[in-house]
Amino acid sequence: MLGNLIEFRKDKLAFFLRCAREYGEMATIRVGSRKVVLLSNPAMIEQVLVTQHRNFVKHFVLRLLKPVLGEGLVTSEGDFWLRQRRLIQPAFGRAQVDSYAGIIVSLTEQMLSEWQPGQERDLHAEMMRLTLAIVAKALLDADVRGEFDEVAEALEYLMRDFVYRFESVIRFPRWMPTHWNRRIKREHQRLDRVIYGIIARRREGPLDGADLLTRLMQATDGEGVMTDRQLRDEMMTLFLAGHETTANALAWTWYLLAQHPEIETRLNAELREVLGGRSPTLADVPRLVYTEQVLTESMRLYPPVYTVGRRSIEACEIGGYDVPADTTFLMSQWVLHHDPRFFDEPDVFRPERWGDGLAKRLPKFAYFPFSGGPRVCVGNTFAMLEATLALATIASRYRFELVPGQRVETWATVTLRPRHGIRAICHARSPRESHAWQR
């Protein structure tokens, strides 16, 4: 009855790795009554996500997010998804993304103004707070910093609900008035109050802004303007998915840097050379080469999204295998990013591996932190700019020492979170240590 559920629940990431390494590039597993196929061949993944993408839709796991995200960009399908994607895409064009640079640096510096050397901070919570503020201001022209605690607590419960429903054979329907269902309903309502509040405040004034929310309110087609419910679904998707993944990427980056002082010193040397003690700007980003390599390597070891899934609509052929209709494929970034076929010493944090053209030599889907194909993450350019500028701003002023004795472990929910946070002591930079690597 359980299939592979016990091992799957114990440690999804280790289970995926074992399946790929022991059973090959197309391994069939069973989670309760559901049979899924784990793909770990880049060419096969490209067939699913790119060349045959019209024959695939989002898999059953994504449907578990619909109570939270509704018919937003992550969960919608078909013509409706295409319409929404076309409306949202301009907000993530190069020129528009570049205009967010000042917001990113300004809000990061506001966060740092509240820190003191020697303080202990939960770096995951701090990065969540920061990226939530950035996404809200850049995309919605809203200030939600006062509502962070409410959003963070709601998210925590919704993540736990997702894991429970994903890993359970028998689930209580959401309409049943159990204690847990009532709590989850309250958390949904808390998030709705935040989002609908932003929409209501925007409707009270003139719609003359350049932010994404204003653009969506003004958009019309043959079906008329978007309803508040449609606006809510898209804003919830961008509001939550748009900050959660970047926060995780930054948090795991601090965790890795704290364990590798030689890499952290080299990173700071680049920041000193490029910035000279000032705040970073958009013009500095092309010169922050090692900074980008640090982020790229961090997302290899700890991909913010650790797996993507698709379900076949009709029978097809993948990698020479006949695939029946209604087959669910999982394609794990965690597995591919730790594959020794593509990465020498795959479990070692070595940012400089990306400095010799590795990205161009790799098969297309050996490294895919933002997924791929027509449904590639719409905000990938924004996320990289945000992470690069935030990392540069913080690392040029602070280094971090992990609090001894804590357990930092992965928690594979919708995204790859640190289960208990990442607690660290903040140490202010000294000019002498900043030049250590160059000497």
Helix/strand/pairing class, anyone?
alpha+beta
Radius of gyration: 22 Å
- Please tell me the overall pLDDT: 89
Instruction: Count all strands and give the number.
Output: 12
For the biggest sheet, the summary is: 5 strands, mixed
> Any low-confidence stretches, pLDDT <50, length ≥5?
434-439
Q: Report the principal-axis shape.
A: globular
Number of contiguous helices: 19
Helix content bin: 40-55%
The spatial strand order of the largest sheet comes to 1-2-8-5-3
Which percent band covers the strand fraction? Answer: 5-15%
Ends distance? 62 Å
Q: Keywords for this structure?
A:
439 residues; alpha+beta; 5-stranded mixed beta sheet; 3-stranded antiparallel beta sheet; 19 helices; 12 strands; 51% helix; 11% strand; disordered C terminus
Describe the protein in words.
- The protein has 439 residues and is of the alpha+beta class.
- The protein has 19 helices and twelve strands.
- The strands form four sheets. It has a five-stranded mixed β-sheet.
- Strand 6 (316-318) and strand 7 (321-323) form a beta hairpin.
- Mean pLDDT is 89; it is low at 434-439.
Q: How do you describe this structure in short?
A:
The protein is α+β, with helices and mostly antiparallel strands.
Protein topology:
Blueprint (H helix, E strand, L loop, with lengths): L4 H6 L1 H12 L2 E6 L2 E6 L2 H10 L4 E3 L1 H4 L2 H4 L8 H11 L5 H5 L2 H12 L7 E3 H18 L7 H20 L11 H26 L7 H7 L9 H32 L1 H15 L13 H13 L6 E5 L3 E3 L2 E3 L4 E4 L1 H5 L20 H4 L18 H16 L2 E5 L7 E3 L3 E3 L4 E6 L2 H4 L5
Parallel strand pairs: 2-8
Antiparallel strand pairs: 1-2, 3-5, 4-12, 5-8, 6-7, 9-12, 10-11
Helix pairs in contact: 8-9, 8-18, 9-13, 10-11, 11-13, 13-15, 13-18, 14-15
